């Protein structure tokens, strides 16, 4: 299992965010969740990193993944 720091930018109403968090919990991935619906600074930071407003945005180490791209996220975290 990867020891990379994982951060998720999400909103409470996003179904893909919920699915991503369930995926992380199922695979014992520790993550920091940032609710961009409540945190304007985090929303601004997310937009600067990705150029867009869509969630979830996942930071895995130095990599950024927009959306719930299970294959890409699994590869970055070395989940089989």
Outline:
The chain is of the alpha+beta class. The protein has helices at 15-26, 40-50, 70-77, and strands spanning 6-10, 32-35, 57-60, 63-66. The chain has three helices and four strands; from the N terminus they run βαβαββα.
Give the DSSP E fraction (strand runs of 2 or more residues): 15-25%
- The run of helices and strands is EHEHEEH
User: What is the count of structural domains?
Assistant: 1
Distance between the termini: 9 Å
Structural class: alpha+beta
What overall form do the CA principal axes indicate? globular
CATH top level class name? Alpha Beta
The name of the CATH architecture is 3-Layer(aba) Sandwich
Which fold name corresponds to the CATH topology? Answer: Glutaredoxin
CATH superfamily: Glutaredoxin
Major sheet, described briefly?
A: 4 strands, mixed
> Helix amount, in percent?
25-40%
Mean pLDDT: 94
pLDDT < 50 stretches: none
Counting H and I runs of at least 4 residues, what is the number of helices? 3
Strand order of the largest sheet: 2-1-3-4
Number of strands: 4
CA-based gyration radius:
12 Å
